[in-house]
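User: Could you check the structure of this?
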Amino acid sequence: MTRDTAISNATQYFDAGTFQSDLATLVSFRSESQNPAPEARAEAQRYLVEAMQPRLQALGFDCEIVDNPNPKGGPLLLGERVEGDDLPTVLTYGHGDTVLGQDDMWRDGLQPWQITEEGDRLYGRGTADNKSQHLINIAALESVLAARGSLGFNTRIVIEMSEEVGSVGLPEIFRTYKDRLTADVLIASDGPRLQPEVPTMFMGSRGGATFDLVVETHEGAHHSGNWGGLLADPAMILAHALACITDARGQIKVPEWRPDSLTDTVREALRDLPVQGGEGPDVDPDWGEESLTPAERVFGWNSFAVLAMVSGVPDAPVNAISGWARATCQLRFVVGTDPQDVVPALRRHLDGHGFDRVQIRPHDRGFFAATRLDPTHPWAQFVGQSIRETSGKLHVLPNLAGSLPNDSFTDILEVPTIWVPHSYRGCSQHAPNEHVLKSVCQDALRVMAGVFWDIGEKQTPGR
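Assistant: Sure, the predicted structure tokens are below.
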């Protein structure tokens, strides 16, 4: 049996339609972690008990489902497959929870909890984020085991059900079960490829902090004719406060939010990487830090965004000065930004510009710190070479532009982290009409079968 046998097994799994039917089963679970209803929590438990545990046990994993120590979080599955004390240990991860289904917002002919095939697309909530991704990795392990009779390494797995609410409870679980989760490397999948036809590998993620900026000037709304010029306008105050955070092209003006971690090594890794591919809007070349390339702006720098903004009643405006205004804002930040100083730095900045009446209200949910593994790390080199051997091409990112619970792996378990995403940027994750591309899934099965074969066959870092 050879490497080609394992890859052929993965290909046949897809070509026979088994991958699609297995994904359809996973999508049928309404595993909405953002839904506080008791039935949603029960569905999270059922996903682990009925969909994950039997398959992993058939693969030789000893599994345990543990309760989340945080009442806002769902259960987690911890699994382990041991072949020998002298073998490397690979940790992998996935999350079976999804954002809300948004059932009434999908276009005609589509339903969030049922797979719909249209050409190269498989529609359904969780197809891209993250059910297809951990299904692909589990199936790749099965393909290698069927080819060789063993993996050639030890494996540990975590499936959580709270990623879409900030992975609440995950750090506590990792601290409690650290001895059962330590490994030589994390190899997992989430997020999109840069381009659908080219595999992507990244070694960390940007962090995220979300907060409301609120201005409250007076009680109630008052007639704009009688009170215009006498009452402060909270929307105007808020607009000027936002304008002092960035300039007109979105360049950040808060000193502590401007990182110093865009090193020559990172710049070299980002050189010539595409920021467009597949579907999605055209990139605005005149937005963001002017001195940086588009790739450096999104993968090597911080970005500030206003996610929503409201004052008064936009759908039914009246001739009155509102007493309040609110903007929901987010900072995505890279390594080199102190997450504990994000809000205090903004407070100092606003006060320094005379906006002391603008309140900052951080959101009450978990958020991920920024992480990054050097692209020259031995495990990054090993996995990258394996992917190139299978696919002939690869995009390498020091970190994802989005956020993941990667800090729990790097800071608590202290493992190098390699992520190989199996989706693409036009997948509509977190939105209606979420989907994966069949062509990407088929290619990803082959890539991961090659990676897992090589770990069991070749001289791995530290082996």
